[in-house]
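Let's study my pick:
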Amino acid sequence: MLQGSFVAIVTPMHADGSLDIPSLHQLIDFHINAGTDGIVIVGTTGESPTVDYDEHRALIKTTVDYVAGRISVIAGTGANSTREAIELTQAAKELGADACLLVAPYYNKPTQEGLYQHYRTIAEAVDIPQILYNVPGRTGVDLSNDTTLRLAEIANIVGIKDATGSIERGSDLIIRAPKDFAIYSGDDASGMALMLMGGKGVISVTANVAPKQMHEMCVAAMSGKVAEACAINAKLFPLHQKLFVEANPIPVKWVLNQMGLIEAGIRLPLVPLSASNYQVLLNAMKSANISTN
């Protein structure tokens, strides 16, 4: 079972929006050296809505090849078209990803039965470990716990990234899910609490900029070291909150640029961080002992 701190890694871009592969390599080294347990490539934080199919494949391949087995690689392969999600998931398998993360279909708002059939069809079509991803605040659809538990019965659906931020819902899943079905937090602010109740880790935005601290917090929380986990989380909490002061990944890309790790490129319709939020993020960085370049 995959567990620990998984970074929902940004996609570095040049000022013109083109992919910056050398900076992606630099970020991967940064994470491996800091103890990050796995990389989630081309997820929401990786601007998956605005990379085309060839870029999507290239980012997965580059990450798998450069990681070279040192840590786990999970490929974001979700789509609101089941056929497209199958195609992306098959590509990720062929390129050597360890698992896939599939966001609930967005915009077209399927029913719970539609969600079940969507995920079941992908799982049956591609034999690779698959992690569900429920983020209703972005997709406009909510994968219910009951539907999740139906899907957990399918052998290669191995977990869920729960980004609802609801401890009640996460706790319900942990109690009722099969023991080999992992519950990961997709909400940094409530991630520690979910792990203390039995969650298997986080798929994290904060880990982009504080990978060592997030790894250490996950280890402490999953080991039941409550005081240690709380102490680390307290320093990170302003980041958990303020990295969402504007739409993700606008703030986290700004912080990484301030750290000297990436250029400032981001793709429309997202735009660079508003100047009015610079100090907000600088204060959050200071709390976590993160320095500017």
The chain has a mean pLDDT of 97. The domain at 4-223 is CATH 3.20.20.70 (TIM Barrel). The longest strand covers residues 157-162. The chain has one domain: 4-223.
